[in-house]
Specification:
The complex is a heterodimer of chains A (290) and B (305). Chain A is built from 14 helices and no strands. With 290 residues, chain A is mainly α. In chain A, helix 1 crosses helix 6, helix 2 packs antiparallel against helix 3 and helix 11 packs across helix 14. Chain A starts with a helix and ends with a helix. In chain A, 48% of the residues are buried. By secondary structure, chain B is of the alpha/beta class. Chain B has 2 domains: 211 residues, Rossmann fold (3-Layer(aba) Sandwich); 63 residues, Alpha-Beta Plaits (2-Layer Sandwich), CATH 3.30.70.100. Helix content of chain B is 36%, strand content 30%. Chain B is built from 11 helices and 14 strands. The longest helix of chain B is centred in the middle third of the chain and has 16 residues. Classes of the chains: A mainly alpha (290), B alpha/beta (305).
Chain lengths: 290, 305
């Protein structure tokens, strides 16, 4: 059970990070401003029929999809690489624990820090929105918040795992930023590029289903699809379309048929983003000389 | 049962051999000094004991368990003051000790431990603001949590003033009196001499000596050394002095004769030398272990070079 102790200590330590709170402040301000903007001019944000609370939720996804990856990098990139670079890992591993427990504790502790910061922002933003709109959908909010916190946990896992592969913080920074650029900023382009090449350097008239699947490999796209899958009625009424989703999110086939092209694929992808980084990070961390 | 048993322990970092076929046994209940110049392989050896690094060959058995296979078990009975560690800057001293107590499943009073290492008045300050000596005391307090059977201390007096180093030695003795085996490394002979039952000297990854302090003194000719100023010192005089009865060894050192005496009085030796070349002045030096240490570590280097 030392992982729980490690997680608690890590939470206590990381929650005192000024960078984290600066980020949370920015997120709170952004969510207040954007919520206000959405409520005042909904037609600009994909709700031509007028502002609804459901619309606000889907609108918030775009903001979260950008905030979570950046916050995860800030909160987690040093989690293990930094301890190894400084040498505090020696203090930690001098105690009766294992590297697996330390790794698990770090993931849990940092995920909790991220969830805490994100939670503060969401409560403020959605509370403000509910007050402005005069409506509130309890079940939808619960599902949305749980999915969003899970997404944050997945991102914390990814970045802590990246941090576990190296003993140099500059290397960890490069890897984490590289991940962000490839999977969040450029990922829209990648499947289209692959399609272009596969089709003999031209675009076909109809876009095949597998392109959608590749698009979903980006964690924030998978997060968006997950919410669509979990709140299908709401998604339909607000006509969840890619334009709202912001960074790297492009859902082209929300109602397509085969499983790999349905929004449920998002859940599978998120699960993979949890398991695969954990496996790689643990393997690298456990086998290295500190 | 041995507290620590190293068998053919070898660690390579790329082309560099940090530790080279180390065989060493530390008995239960002793205070063992691990001595060597910087870069000799002391910390590498300790890092293997704690499973921070994995050996290239050989094994390390600590308290009867393989250090790599059963690291958690080993560390549950071992208190550690590692080398090159860093404290958690944002956590207070008390939080550090509380963390160690919780990790070890112990039930001690953090304030009593902090009192024992004399930083109780700084318990609520963030450890990031501690001096090097205070950090060293803090980590020692963490090491003492749970009344360990073995203390592994890597350069424990780093950053401590003479008073602090003395307090550190007192704590080492107190723990040892309660049955704790103490294994500590140092590059300063004086600290080892003051407290250790036995000493190993390591140089360039290899053991060059393992003995008690007295045994080390006896094993070498460094009992007493005479420095003698004579008129007209040259190779011929040196040769004649060497052949005198009761002279162990002789050499020219900085314009003087350096002579070790073997079985005769200093007076008799001086008298004999005076007949070869007239003695103008002399001094007697009882060689310290520091000399011994320097000699051990330099000799090996010359042999290897």
């Amino acid at each position: 059970m030392t992982w729980l102790t490690v997680a608690k200590k890590d939470f206590r330590d990381a929650v005192q990070s000024r960078a984290l709170w600066a980020l949370v402040a920015v997120f709170v301000v952004l969510s207040l401003v954007s919520t206000y903007a959405y409520v005042e001019v909904p037609e600009m944000f994909g709700s031509p029929a007028g502002a609804t609370f459901g619309g606000l939720l889907f609108f918030t996804i775009g903001l979260v999809g950008l905030f979570v990856p950046i916050a995860a990098i800030v909160v987690c990139y040093k989690s293990l690489a930094g301890e190894r670079e400084l040498g505090s890992i020696k203090l930690l591993l001098s105690l009766p624990t294992t590297r697996g427990q330390v790794f698990a504790g770090k993931v849990l502790g940092r995920a909790a820090v991220l969830a805490f910061g994100l939670g503060v922002g969401l409560v403020v933003g959605l509370g403000f929105g509910a007050a402005l709109l005069g409506e509130f959908e309890g079940v939808a909010v619960l599902v949305f918040v749980l999915a969003t916190l899970s997404f944050a946990a997945v991102y914390a896992t990814i970045v802590v795992s990246i941090s576990a592969t190296t003993g140099s913080t500059s290397r960890a920074t490069t890897l984490a930023l590289g991940f962000f650029v490839v999977f969040e900023l450029l990922w829209d382009v990648v499947p289209m590029g692959v399609l272009y090449v596969v089709e003999g350097f031209s675009f076909p008239a109809t876009i095949p289903d597998w392109v959608f699947t590749v698009t979903q490999l980006s964690p924030s796209s998978a997060y968006f699809s997950t919410i669509v899958a979990l709140l299908p009625d709401l998604a339909e009424t607000v006509g969840a379309d890619p334009a709202q989703a912001g960074a790297g999110v492009e859902v082209t086939a929300a109602d397509a048929e085969p499983f790999y092209a349905s929004p449920e694929i998002g859940l599978v992808v998120l699960l993979l983003w949890l398991v695969v980084p954990l496996a790689i990070g643990y393997y690298r961390f456990d086998s290295s000389d500190l | 049962m041995a507290a620590i048993e190293l068998e053919g322990l070898t660690k390579r970092f790329g082309d560099v051999v940090a530790v080279d076929g180390l065989d060493l046994t530390i008995r239960e209940g002793e205070i063992f000094g691990f001595l060597g110049p910087n870069g000799a392989g002391k910390s590498t050896t300790i890092d293997v004991l704690l499973d921070f690094i994995r050996p290239t060959a050989g094994t390390a058995t600590v308290l009867g368990h393989d250090a790599q296979e059963a690291g958690q078990l080993v560390r549950s009975r071992t208190g550690v003051l590692p080398d090159g560690y860093h404290v958690y800057d944002r956590l207070t001293g008390r939080q550090h000790v509380e963390f160690a107590i919780e990790m070890k499943g112990a039930s001690e009073d953090p304030d009593a431990l902090l009192e024992r290492v004399r930083i109780a008045d700084a318990a609520d300050r963030r450890a990031g603001g501690y001096s090097k000596g205070m950090r060293q005391r803090l980590v020692l307090a963490m090491a003492l949590v749970g009344d360990p059977d073995l203390l592994v201390l890597d350069e424990p007096s780093t950053g401590l003033d003479p008073n602090g180093a003395r307090e550190m030695r007192e704590i080492i003795r107190e723990e040892n009196d309660r049955g704790t085996t103490v294994f500590f490394s140092s590059h300063i002979m004086e600290q080892v001499e003051a407290v250790c039952d036995r000493v190993a000297i390591i140089n360039r990854g290899q053991l060059v000596a393992v003995d008690t302090i007295d045994g080390l003194r006896d094993a070498t000719e460094t009992g007493e050394t005479l420095y003698v100023y004579v008129t007209d010192l040259d190779e011929r005089v040196l040769e004649q002095v060497r052949n005198l009865d009761g002279i162990g060894s002789a050499a020219i050192d900085d314009g003087r004769l350096r002579v070790s005496i073997d079985g005769v009085s200093k007076f008799a030796a001086l008298h004999a030398i005076d007949r070869v070349a007239s003695v103008q002045d002399f001094s007697v030096v009882e060689s310290s272990l520091e000399d011994l240490f320097v000699r051990y570590t330099n000799d090996t280097q010359e042999v290897e070079a």
